[in-house]
Specification:
Elements lengths: L8 E6 L4 H16 L2 E7 L4 H6 L3 E4 L4 H16 L6 H33 L4 E5 L7 H5 L4 E5 L24 H34 L2 H5 L2 H4 L4 E4 L2 E4 L3 E3 L16 E3 L23 E6 L8 H17 L3 E6 L3 H5 L8 E4 L4 H5 L4 E4 L3 H9 L4 E3 L6 H10 L3 E3 L7 H13 L1 H16 L4 H12 L1
Parallel strand pairs: 1-2, 1-4, 2-3, 4-5, 5-8, 8-9, 10-11, 10-13, 11-12, 13-14, 14-15
Antiparallel strand pairs: 6-7
Helix pairs in contact: 3-4, 4-6, 9-14
Amino acid sequence: MNKSSSKKGTVWVVLYPQFSAYNAAFPMVRELERQDYRVVFVGNATFSHYVSEAGFEYRILEPEKEWFDHLLERHERRLEAVDVRSRFAEFRIKARLNLEKNLDVGNHLQTKIDSLLKEIPPNLVLSDYLLPQSAIPFLKANIPIVGVSTCLSSVFSWRTPPVFSAVVPFYRFSAVNRLRNLAAWMRLAMRRLKESIMFNAYFVFALGLKGFREGKPIQNAGGRVRLGEYGDRLDVPELVMAPRELDFPLVARSLVRHYVGSCVDPSRPGDPFDWSWVDAEKKLIYCSLGSHSEWAKDNWRRLMNALLGAMAYFEDMQLIIQVSDENDRENMTQVPANVFVTEWVPQLEVLEKASLFITHGGLSSVRESLYYGVPMIVFPYGMDQPGNAARVVYHNLGLRGSISSVDSELLMRMIQTVLADDEIQASLKRMQEIFRRKNNYTEAVSFLERFMKK
């Protein structure tokens, strides 16, 4: 008997390959399985073990190594065989060969996906907005798609700023808000327009008139797109991996935007951590800039130096710094006795004990901090982090700083302010109650069921 035949339906989940995306999705997926749906995660081999270890089904979809190696060898031979006198002609031919290689990979993956669709036909696909082209096979097969937004990104609207923007809306003065939002969106739109022109020009340059069509794969598959912060955004209903109350109010009113909930799994397992260093009688500060702190390497060092200098003053507190790069850990000198530097920490376990979280403002870190009622000092350095920091400020859940200009004295004052501010503590308590109450995913499943019935 087919494994799916005894279930209410089958849902495929295709996520951006990062831990935060999978961790956010796990609680809702457990609810889908509890309500008798078969859920299949689909992606490359990178996260196969992690997802399987969490107890979920995972199917690997990527080119076989032997096939891919053969493709690369053939591609290199074709590049070496290019023999033209004009550099312009050489560049054009190489561009065409590179595009043809990518199209070969896409066609090969399409064949594998078609085979898996026959083996495990889904009733619905949850497709990450950060991977819009991953939805193409499902558009072609006419399978219902719901977008998964693992950050608080959205589509163009002058009612709210883009998530890349640090703009904090005013509580009133809606006309001024709209002008500020429009200006932020226009800056982003101009950048995206330039990227789109260059992208399509590359296709036309390499493939001729055929490039006009090849440069719009989502539309060719029958999908519609809208302008979003990350580029083309598939125009389908969406699940946002956060509570509605964390977002700006005007964004949250969209009828096709369903907020899943806190998306924090307190039972998430972690490796053992040595707590013998920590004094339970002292306040604990935790600092982590996420898994991509190398993007802000110079600014990261500035923040670390400022933090170490501040902790020399706060002798009655203690600090855990998570630093994944071994060279960075070795280069940290003059570390005060009340500072513990480590490669990895069980973040949920640490936040449960922490009094303050110094973070880059990734949505996963913000959610987890609020679940445990920990105030934040946010130092964003890219992507959606400025927008998340703006929401922290808007809801009075902490402070934000500039990672490019922070120093020990300024950071020391910020720490004192956050820990002593009664209004921040009251706002945190209200938001923590929301996060604890909304760690239930029956409404999200109901939203998906209504969509499948339509």
